[in-house]
Design brief:
This protein is mainly beta and 267 residues long. 3% of the residues lie in helices and 42% in strands. β4 and β5 form a beta hairpin.
C-alpha cells in the first residue's frame, strides 16, 4: 500500500497498491522482488494462468467499485485491460467467476481454451425473478459471452467442479463436463454430470449419479414464501416465510413465529 493504508492520501501514477513477485531461487540469492501489477484501488486478489495471462481484482469500499483486470505478469509494460468495472453490491450485473483447473501438483490455475482466447464463467444468476445459476463461454478478444447453460425452473440447479479435470491433463472445450446439483422445495439435491458432445448450440447431455432419499420426510412439504415490503424510508426489503406442511392461514389462524434478522449496510 503506497498510501500507507490511508485512503485519503493522494498517490502518483495510479499506484495506490503495488504487487511484487520473486521466485524461490532469486529470493535465496538475495535478489529484490519485482513489481508486476499496480492499481489505484485496493488490490483484492489474483488468478494465474501463465506468464502471459493472469487476472487481478481490485475494489474500493467507499464507492463499492470493483474492477476485474487482465494483464501479462511477464510484461507489466503492456498494461492492464479492464474486463469488468461495476458496483459489487449490484448483484444483477455480476458476470460470474472464472472456472479454474488443477495442475499436476494440485494447484488451481485459470482454465483457458484455444490458445488462451476463451474462458468459462460460472455465476449465481441473480435477477428479480430469483437466482438462476449459469455457465458462460467468454471471449477474451471480443469481450463477448455465450450462454452455455442456465438453471431452469422449477428447480434450483448449480454447477460444481470440472469432471474432466484430473492430474493436470490438458482438455479442450469439446471435452468439458461439469458436476451438476439439482433440487427444489420438496426434493433433496441430486447430482449428475452434464456435457456437450453435440456442441454448444445443442442442449447438454446429462447422466444421473445419485438418487438420495429425502433426509426429513416430515418436512418434505414445508411451505416457503418470499415476502417483499418497504421500510418507512422507502427502502425495499424482503423476508422468507416458512410455514408447516399443510398450513392454511385462513383456516388455522396465527401460529408461533421465530424471527431471524441479519441487517447489512448498503450504499
Amino acid at each position: 500500500a503506497c498510501d500507507e493504508g490511508d485512503p485519503g492520501m493522494e498517490v502518483e501514477g495510479g499506484k495506490r497498491d503495488v504487487s511484487y513477485r520473486i521466485g524461490a531461487r532469486e529470493f535465496a540469492e538475495g535478489k529484490d522482488p519485482q513489481p508486476f501489477f499496480h492499481t489505484d484501488l485496493r488490490c483484492s486478489g489474483f488468478l494465474w494462468c501463465n506468464d502471459n495471462l493472469a487476472f487481478g481484482w481490485a475494489s474500493w469500499w467507499k464507492t463499492r467499485r470493483s474492477v476485474w483486470y487482465q494483464f501479462s505478469p511477464n510484461d507489466p509494460e503492456k498494461g492492464k485491460t479492464v474486463l469488468f468495472d461495476r458496483n459489487y453490491e449490484d448483484a444483477y450485473s455480476d458476470p460470474g467467476s472464472p472456472v479454474s483447473k488443477k495442475t499436476s501438483n494440485n494447484r488451481s490455475i485459470l482454465a483457458t481454451f484455444e490458445n488462451d482466447r476463451y474462458i468459462l464463467l460460472e455465476g449465481e444468476g441473480y435477477s428479480p425473478r430469483g437466482n438462476h445459476p449459469f455457465l458462460d463461454l467468454f471471449d477474451l478478444e471480443t469481450k463477448e459471452s455465450k450462454r452455455l447453460w442456465e438453471s431452469k425452473d422449477p428447480f434450483y440447479e448449480s454447477i460444481g467442479g470440472l469432471m474432466c479435470d484430473g492430474m493436470g491433463k490438458d482438455f479442450s472445450l469439446d471435452d468439458i463436463s461439469f458436476l451438476l446439483s439439482r433440487e427444489n422445495q420438496n426434493e433433496p439435491s441430486q447430482y449428475s454430470t452434464i456435457s456437450w458432445p453435440k456442441g454448444f448450440d445443442s442442449e447438454p447431455e446429462e447422466q444421473l449419479l445419485t438418487n438420495f432419499p429425502h433426509p426429513h420426510p416430515n418436512l418434505k412439504d414445508l411451505q416457503k414464501k418470499v415476502l417483499k415490503y418497504k421500510r418507512k424510508d422507502g427502502t425495499d426489503l424482503n423476508a422468507t416465510l416458512y410455514t408447516p406442511p399443510g398450513y392454511d392461514a385462513a383456516k388455522d389462524g396465527p401460529i408461533p413465529c421465530l424471527l431471524w434478522a441479519y441487517p447489512k449496510e448498503f450504499k
